[in-house]
């Protein structure tokens, strides 16, 4: 590249030549193939754009006649990329030798035994931890949030988008300016020094005075535990409040000791007593025995609506519903209706989604069943989940002086009592989840060139070395998505990581097809809008409502990808997508308002079935029928795994 462009005493280019050279260089810098090849030279993706921008200037200023003629002949594309890359390699090894040497030094092994060392900013501080431990309805989170609001700079890390929204609203209503950051949205409030976020979005680069990590016991969650481990070790805060039950206390103590930091414990008891009713509902007329303030818990969408119909037909009480596939906004609306004594809605039918993120004035929790379908098999509901859900009864600020809990089936009462009798001190979270940051995968990829992304994920997990306190979080859904996208050309390792960690339920064929379509357009740098079609009128059936729920999941997927995408100008139309999300919520609200009238016939049929429960064995048949449908619906409606949340 000895010659120089005109203006520096060198080679002069025509307008057409300048345009073609510019297009070739732009194509080179945006190529996923070039990015992956550069990684093998130890040019990490974090500085790739900076390096190629510098390279483009060097080429334009020093282009030779031979290079000009070659680029004019082939134009932008694979041929020009392969033509330019040897020149790029020779140049970058000289110009960026220090950066390359530093990166080479980092790449010695895949060693995850000391994950706290990944977070240099947090390690430069002497942090103090306060562990607020206690059961549900003990006020443990209240004190932590008070400390957060009193701080000059604060960060709240929520297990759910719903909780992040709740704290965001509360802080701003109380005069503490607070921004909201989730996987789907960034609402930056001018002048705000506080942020409420889903835990996966917690920054390890922005120092704060006080941070709150909620539901710390989820550090042991098989899919999402890594996010709590990362927050615990990486948030740069002077003071960090951990809220949850005591099951993770021993594990947290070990991790904090490894970091050489201080930890204190504050224990809390329930404000109101919690009692188990001796008799199940099947001995008292079934769902005819449901009363105002009750919350019936089931574990599938189909069961929830069947139970809602049965209760409304048999008791005359109107029931709200809450389950995981409902958008957070709709869950909040349903919770407000249930809590409002003048709304006309006196009963809640919910999934385990009610166990976290909603303040509910529940008199009694009724478990429809204590078995839950887990993808391929049915297993008993865990002790921790039973405690979490049961503890929602008898909220301190409600009208109920105590909380009650029971089951629909008499056969479940003994297991319920057994689970609730287990002391929190005896419950133990043995290991903390861990999962690689993108940079770790990138480091590993530089050592195994040519390996496909699915193979890379599997190989990384096989060769990673972990300390005895940690386990590698499940990555089944990531590998499944990686396989679906494996044959798509033009996606860099970072691009593939982005799509594989997107919030999509791979059991849902519609949502997954949208993900594949978005990835196809992204790899071709084509404009990618939300591209969904909404109905004009509110759904009139539960089945039609399900279609809206899926479209909302697709909208959340698109919004998440738009926030994370590195290519500019591909995900277009964010305002339209946000408007679509609002329209979906509006349609759902109208649908819920009209659903009772549309379900009149179903309610009458459910009432007839309940009246027949007086016949021996029919109660069991109803339960078996509902559970059978539950297994089908769980397959269709299970929520996506964590790396894919908060999401």
Report on the architecture of this protein.
- This protein has 647 residues and is of the alpha/beta class.
- Among the domains are: 15-106; 118-267, Rossmann fold, CATH 3.40.50; 274-422, P-loop containing nucleotide triphosphate hydrolases (Rossmann fold).
- It is built from 24 helices and 18 strands.
- Strands 4-3-5-2-6-7-1-8 form an 8-stranded mixed beta sheet, with helices on both faces. It has a 6-stranded parallel beta sheet with strand order 9-16-13-10-12-11, sandwiched between helices.
- A hairpin with a 4-residue loop joins strand 3 and strand 4 (186-187).
- Helix 12 (301-315) packs across helix 23 (600-611) and helix 20 packs parallel to helix 21.
- The radius of gyration is 28 Å and the shape is globular.
- The protein starts with 14 loop residues before the first helix and ends in a 10-residue tail after the last helix.
- Residues 1-9 and 614-647 have low confidence and may be disordered.
- It is an enzyme of class 3 (hydrolase).
- This is RNA helicase.
- Homodimer; in free form. Component of the mitochondrial degradosome (mtEXO) complex which is a heteropentamer containing 2 copies of SUPV3L1 and 3 copies of PNPT1.
- InterPro entries: DExH18_N, DEXQc_SUV3, Helicase_ATP-bd, Helicase_C-like, P-loop_NTPase, RNA-DNA_Helicase, Suv3_C_1, Suv3_DEXQc.
- Its cofactor is Mn(2+); Mg(2+).
